[in-house]
Amino acid sequence: MQLLRKATDDETPLKLALEYRLGAINELAHSLLSFMNEIGEVSALNLDDGINLHHEVLRYESELIRRALQLTKNHQVRAAKMLNIKPTTLNSKIKRYKIQI
Fold this sequence. Notes:
Layout (H helix, E strand, L loop, with lengths): L12 H28 L12 H19 L4 H8 L3 H10 L5
Helix pairs in contact: 2-3, 3-4
């Protein structure tokens, strides 16, 4: 993220603030686009072989944890709040699913 810089003679503080906000919006848009692209990469289920519900639920939970950690830049307390679970529960699931931080 860019930092606010001091205005030069031909720039107003309002113009700099607008430049900063547009940069922040641009960065957020790129992050959201990247996240949406990753969601599209989720593998499709092969219904011909049947579905192991337990395995799929574990895979989904693991993926949710990875996404929350990614969005919070691996900050476990914020990721736990995002997932509405206790940080200790999140930590045990990270260990159980062997998620690299």
